[in-house]
Each structure stands twice: as C-alpha cells, then as structure tokens.
Amino acid sequence: MTQELQLPFPPFPDEVPSLEVLPVEPPAFEVPAFEVPAFEVPAFDVPAFDVVVTRSAKRRRTVGARLVGNVLRIAIPARMTRAEEQKWVLEMTRRFERMRSTERIDLPQRAATLARRYSLGTPRDIRWSDDMTTRWGSCTPSTGTIRISTRIGSFPDWVVDYVIVHELTHLRIPGHGEDFWAAVRRYSRTERAIGYLIAKSGDDDCT
C-alpha cells in the first residue's frame, strides 16, 4: 500500500507584478589569510574479536560467552533489549580481552621471583581474578592466597610487579603501616606504579 502525503499550498495570483532588479555592486573585501591547524585522525578501538550474538528462548537470566578461534560467541536471552545486548557484548568483550592479556604472565613464577628478590613471603596460591572490580589485588594471609585482578593484565610489567609485591608483603605484614610501606618501597618503582594506578582508577586506594 502506498501512502501519499499532500500538503495544501496557497493559490497563486493570476498575474505576478513585474519587478525591476537593479544591479548592486558588492563591496570589495579581502579574505584574511589563516593557517589550517594540523590535526591527527583519532584512533578508533578495533574489537579484538569477531563477535557473534545468538538469542535463545531457552536462556532466561544468564549470558554465556565462549571464544572459538578469534570469534567470540555470545548467547543471550531472546527477550533482551538491544541496549542490554550492547551492554553485554561490551562486557564480555572486555572480559575476554583481559583474560587474553593475562596469558603472557605466569603469576606463580613471577611471584616466586619477586619473593626471592625482596625477601618476601611465598603464597600457597596466586591466581588471576575476573571478579575484582574495586581492587587491583587481595591477600588472605591465613590461607596464603593472593588474587590479582585481570584488569591489570594489560598494564606495564613494572605495574603488575608492584601489585604482586604489595600483596606478597601482606602475607607477613597486615595493614598499611610504616613497616609495611618500608618493605614495599624496596621495590624501586613503587611510587611510579602507585601514580599509574591512581590515574587508572581515579582513586587514592591503590590496592
């Protein structure tokens, strides 16, 4: 079915009075010279994966994702809105990017090296955690367990080393007293790493 829209126009008069157009000489003027500022084409983030989204009527409240080669397959409930879909695509892409960035670092080996170098405690277990959203790392001295946030997986190695040293120190020294910071600052890039983390988080709570 074709829909047409007709708008009424006012009637034209039978005769249109003639108008005498007088030539007008435009005033002379000069265009001021100016320099075009140099600029750089902004870099756009290129997704690390090809994303394929599948809607499932069987899926009710959960969102699943798995990486097959370089294709991130995300399964969402069929009733999810487009805005919710975009939110979860972004979240899952970020999570898998963080997971991929952590593969370059062997945490147990790195922690053992730093513990020997700075005479710190050795954890019974140290691993990456994808659930830490407000802290860069955590330590449970009673169990000798250390968790490092996957958010720092793409940070420079010297920043990752600081977070590991920070948590290794907590194995023996609880709290953040003077004795704690004296031990941590044996790592020469402590202040620089703290500044980097503050810039990343916008918060003074470094770990």
Secondary structure tally, helices? 5
Query: How many angstroms does the end-to-end distance come to?
Result: 65 Å
CATH architecture of the largest domain: 2-Layer Sandwich
Structural class: alpha/beta
Quaternary class:
single chain
Question: Can you write the helix and strand succession as a string?
Answer: EEEHHEEEHHH
The profile of the biggest β sheet is: 3 strands, mixed
Report the CATH topology name of the largest domain.
Zincin-like
Number of strands: 6
- Shape label: elongated
Mean pLDDT reading: 76
CATH superfamily of the largest domain: Metalloproteases ("zincins"), catalytic domain
What is the CATH C level class of the largest domain, in words?
Alpha Beta
- For the record, the count of structural domains works out to 2
Q: Using only CA atoms, what is the Rg?
A: 31 Å
Q: How much helical structure, as a percent, in the residues?
A: 25-40%
Biggest sheet: strand arrangement: 1-3-2
Low-confidence stretches: 1-22, 27-46
β-strand amount: 15-25%
Write a brief structural summary.
This protein is α/β, with parallel strands linked by helices. Helices cover 31% and strands 16% of the residues.
What features would you describe in this structure?
- With 207 residues, the protein is of the alpha/beta class.
- It folds into 2 domains: 50-102, no CATH class; 107-201, Metalloproteases ("zincins"), catalytic domain (Zincin-like, 2-Layer Sandwich), CATH 3.30.2010.10.
- Helix content is 31%, strand content 16%.
- The strands form 2 sheets. It has a 3-stranded mixed beta sheet with strand order 1-3-2, with helices on one face. The protein has a 3-stranded mixed beta sheet with strand order 4-6-5, with helices on one face.
- Helix 2 packs across helix 3 (157-170) and helix 3 crosses helix 5.
- The longest helix is centred in the middle third of the chain and has 21 residues, at 82-102.
- Residues 1-22 and 27-46 have low confidence and may be disordered.
